[in-house]
Amino acid sequence: MFAEENGLHGDPRIKAISDAIRVVPHFPKPGIMFQDITTLLLDQKAFKYTVDIFVDRYKEKKISVVAGVEARGFIFGPPIALAIGAKFVPLRKPRKLPGEVISEAYVLEYGTDCLEMHVGAVQAGESVLIVDDLVATGGTLSAAIRLLGKELEVHCSSSSTIILDQINNIYIFEHVFLERVGADVVECACVIGLPQVKGNWTLNGVPLYVLVEPRLNDLGHFGDGGFV
Length: 228
Ligand SMILES: O=P(O)(O)OC[C@H]1O[C@H](OP(=O)(O)OP(=O)(O)O)[C@H](O)[C@@H]1O
Ligand SMILES: Nc1ncnc2[nH]cnc12
Fold this sequence. Notes:
alpha/beta, Rossmann fold, 6-stranded mixed sheet, 22% helix, disordered C terminus, binds 1-O-pyrophosphono-5-O-phosphono-alpha-D-ribofuranose, binds adenine
């Protein structure tokens, strides 16, 4: 949900945050109204308000992991993690992490991308908050949730789990993680969210908390192409 609809209605910090985000039309391609948070980072008050709102929301929730999505989740995630007493775990684009990784692919407007995290960085059962700057289609956050969350079990009996792979091989396991961490993903937190995410405030069953809507251009709309 939007912060304004959840206890922060009329809070001047929300307007300050929104005002500090710069809109760059037609970046990185024609029709995209790019929401540039680098100007928010230049505004010490607005940056602090952003972190403070998230910290107030999550400090009593017993969250032990803040997972930040590359690249801009690396900016907002660490100060939140430090303030709420959680560890910070980077979810990186492919081939950036030096250790053993687990991966999750996701679909972009054109082609696919992938998020990776180090094996062992998060344990099954830990409570995780996922942080990014912006949610557009939700594809990136959904991949992060799949990576960290609990596995999808195809069929369970009392003592085992049966998995069918894509070519119908059958595997029977006592415990299955399917390269999923098995953590409890408590919420996804984003600074900016599309208006159309209103009314659909969960991704893969995980609640989504957003501070501000995207800023409009001078003509009062999001541009022809909207968002990437
Ligand atoms: O909701 P979605 O449609 O998945 O889009 C949101 C994602 O897009 C942006 O990252 P981008 O993919 O541009 O990567 P970058 O931050 O590494 O440039 C943004 O920071 C989110 O991570
Ligand atoms: N319009 C936008 N501005 C900034 N980052 C984005 N990621 C996806 N769409 C975006």
